[in-house]
Design brief:
Length: about 775
């Protein structure tokens, strides 16, 4: 099949190039506006208890949780001064009249409620709720935020709250993505020039990267028409699109140049490249897509969106590398080395640095493998201390206004009014104030609760406290069935204490029937349950899918098992580094972020799927070459050394380049994007320099011929369905000589692809 594809791309190269150009044009036009169709939410499980409670609050009681906070600071005096009080009441009324904004309450409208006043009396809060889904909230806060951010003659007003945090995170990520693209592409092109030594060859991976990115934007445009897609998936589209394009293009172009050096005519070299390197690219892309596909098993739109983007970008990058790139190589012919800045002839087989590395490792496989495994285990130990959290304002830079508002609330206010747990009792009698009062009093006695508000009044430590009539009135409506209460925490909502409080509230016996709990602490509990409940299934999917694909590629049982074990070892070390850096705060000054003592819940899952796929990418590159050599020589030691030598420089170059692509994300102002970029860059470098350079050759040497053993029934299965490399067959000559023959051309063999050249060289290497 790949042979026919290679011949088609050579024969119809102009058609392929024109069709690709038109596709890129359409993708650029439609995909350029895809960001406007994507959602900034998607971090919650829509079927979780907290989301069901939020839905009931919104649709039955019209009581959306507060997601807007105005921090009011008087210019003179305190918040109780007549001028400040008048300004505060006017501000409260103005916000309450805004369309789509409800549940507005402030220090002044709530009868000078102490929790809405700072400990020193120099600041006060106005709380409100914008109703609607994440996108509607984002659009509304985008309009409101600049209008309510004020430096007035009487009071200054700053905007915070969940809605404003989400908006600023969204803006920051969008700006950071543009900045990353401006940095990444020139650096990548420069490094590619260093790798290839010429401008034309160096530009080919960038072209494939543009094709992969624009094609994926078009795919996301189509997917967003039928389901929600997170805007954060654009980060993966750009980074992974460019990274995989570099990987695949390096392998294809390097193989093409190698076949030219062996004496093949350019068009025959293209066909041979598609047969060999193309097979590796297809296997790699399927493995990456399978790993990323595991995120479809999670109910969170955020993770599913990365699966959509990742699967699309890996398959499109592979298609570009085995269809568009070969057609372009056939068109360029020897001109692929045009505009060459220097010429570096590869060393003869057996004399390269990577050959010496492999040989040295295989002389002492046991101590080297043991040392490498111990290193990875030690690096992975910090992951045992991992704590999981959710996105909050601290993912933003300290100078962002919403971050500053929340910092002030954490420091100067006694409770977290905007982080309240909302307890919904859908079957309660709204007129049974006595029972609701007893339940509110019970909840207020829980450690970590500052106050409980209900239709029966407000309670602190089990005792009723004075509260304005308006406070109780917002919880009461005889027109609808059910009731709800607000549990205001005295602890940080998104913390271990906030999570424990949510558990305690849920486990407290209810005298009003079934209850559902919403709020930040409850969302943290539900997110962890949703993620970790599906994690075993996702891990099983990745393991089985990867094992099957590797078996179909290599016809071995041991090779896939070793690949899975080595990838888990490598990733555990990477995750250990992430805990040490981003959870515990080491290097926080250098990387400019605020450590919160936890990692965002979705990031370990996302990073595992992406990093696992990328690590397997290099595994496939190396093992394909080793198997090709083993099939030719049947010498285990020689095939491992030659395979590492043939791929070592390519894998190293690809790893450095892709680590730069991901590493640039460390310049982002959002800490979980930094985590994503730094983590994946470390994972790629760890895999290329520790796993491929030491553990793979050591374990291949120890296993010997058992590497390729398969029981007879499975061998027959592999021979029938395996993604094997077909023996090349003579192909019709389609090349037209357009330049005067050089001495090298005169010596070029005219035999069919895969035959023995006059020099006696067999053309079977990848």
């Amino acid at each position: 099949m790949l042979t026919r594809l290679g011949r088609f791309t050579v024969r119809r190269r102009k058609l392929v190039l024109v069709a690709t150009f038109l596709l890129v044009l359409v993708a650029g036009v439609l995909g350029s506006g895809v960001a406007n169709r994507l959602t900034s939410g998607g971090f919650a499980d829509p079927k979780s208890e907290s989301e069901q409670a939020k839905d009931l609050l919104d649709h039955r009681f019209g009581a959306t949780q507060p997601n807007v906070v105005l921090l009011v600071t008087p210019r003179r005096g305190d918040v109780d001064s007549p001028a400040a009080a008048d300004a505060g009441r006017a501000l409260t009324g103005e916000l309450a009249r805004e369309p789509g904004v409800g549940n507005v309450v402030s220090y002044w409208s709530a009868g000078e409620a102490a929790p809405l006043r700072s400990r020193t009396g120099d600041r006060a809060l106005v709380l409100a709720a914008i109703r609607g889904n994440d996108d509607r909230v984002n659009n509304r806060i985008t309009e409101l935020s600049p209008r309510y951010t004020r430096d007035g003659p009487t009071v200054d007003v700053a905007v915070g709250g969940e809605a404003e945090v989400a908006r600023q995170v969204n803006d920051q990520v969008t700006g950071d993505l543009t900045k990353a693209e401006r940095i990444t592409i020139p650096i990548t092109l420069l490094l590619l020039v260093v790798v290839f030594g010429g401008l034309v060859a160096a530009g080919l991976p960038v072209l494939i990267g543009v094709l992969a990115i624009l094609g994926t934007l078009l795919a996301l445009f189509a997917i967003s028409a039928v389901t929600d897609v997170s805007i954060y998936s654009l980060n993966l589209t750009t980074a992974l699109g460019l990274g995989l394009a570099i990987d695949y293009s390096l392998f294809v172009v390097s193989r093409y140049r190698e076949e030219l050096r062996r004496g093949l005519a350019p068009h025959d070299a293209v066909v041979r490249t598609v047969e060999t390197a193309g097979r590796t690219v297809v296997g790699s892309a399927l493995t990456v897509a399978a790993s990323l596909g595991a995120m479809l098993l999670f109910p969170l739109v955020f993770l599913r969106s990365f699966a959509y983007a990742g699967i699309a970008v890996s398959l499109i990058a592979a298609a570009g590398a085995i269809v568009f790139l070969p057609a372009l190589l056939a068109f360029l012919s020897h001109r692929v080395d045009a505009l060459r800045l220097w010429k570096r002839e590869p060393k003869p087989v057996g004399r390269g640095a990577w050959h010496r590395v492999a040989t040295a490792v295989m002389r002492r496989p046991v101590p080297i493998a043991t040392s490498a495994v111990l290193l990875l285990v030690v690096l992975g130990i910090p992951f045992l201390r991992v704590h999981i959290g959710l996105v909050d304002d601290r993912v933003l830079p300290a100078e962002r206004s919403s971050r500053q508002v929340q910092d002030v609330i954490r420091r100067d206010f006694s409770s977290n009014e905007s982080g309240a747990l909302e307890v919904v009792a859908p079957e309660a009698d709204p007129d049974d104030s006595a029972t609701l009062g007893r339940y509110a009093a019970t909840l207020s006695r829980i450690s970590g609760v500052a106050r409980v508000d209900a239709a029966a009044g407000s309670y602190v430590h089990g005792t009723p406290v004075p509260a304005p009539a308006a406070t109780a009135a917002r919880f009461h409506s005889s027109a609808v069935k059910g009731a709800w209460l607000s549990v205001v925490p005295a602890v940080e909502p998104l913390s271990d204490a906030g999570e424990a409080l949510a558990h305690h509230v849920r486990n407290t016996a209810s005298p009003v029937g079934k209850t559902l709990v919403a709020g930040p602490g409850a969302e943290l509990v539900d997110s962890k349950d949703s993620l970790f409940g599906r994690l075993p299934l996702a891990a099983a999917w990745i393991a089985v899918a990867t094992f099957v694909l590797l078996f179909l590629m290599f016809g071995s049982l041991l090779v896939p098992v070793k690949a899975l074990v080595l990838n888990v070892l490598s990733l555990s070390a990477t995750f250990g580094a992430m805990v040490w850096i981003f959870q515990e705060g080491h290097l926080s000054g250098f990387l400019d972020f605020t450590a919160t003592g936890s990692l965002v819940a979705t990031m370990p899952v996302l990073m595992f799927c992406v990093a696992f796929g990328l690590s397997m990418d290099y595994e496939v590159f190396l093992l394909s070459r080793i198997k090709e050599e083993h099939d030719r020589t049947h010498d285990n030691v020689k095939s491992v050394a030659t395979g590492l030598e043939r791929t070592g420089r390519i894998v190293t170059a690809a790893a450095v380049l892709i680590s730069v692509v991901f590493g640039v994300l460390a310049t982002s102002g959002v800490s979980f994007i930094k985590l994503f970029g730094v983590g994946l860059a470390l994972a790629v470098l760890m895999d290329a320099f520790v796993i491929r350079a030491t553990l793979v050759p050591a374990l291949m040497r120890l296993a010997g011929e058992a590497n390729w053993w398969t029981p007879r029934p499975l061998r027959r299965l592999y021979e029938r369905f395996g993604i094997g490399e077909a023996e090349p067959v003579p192909a019709p000559r389609v090349e037209v000589q357009v330049h005067p023959p050089s001495s090298d051309d005169e010596r070029r063999s005219r035999d069919p692809v895969g035959a023995v050249s006059p020099a006696g060289q067999r053309r079977t290497e990848a």
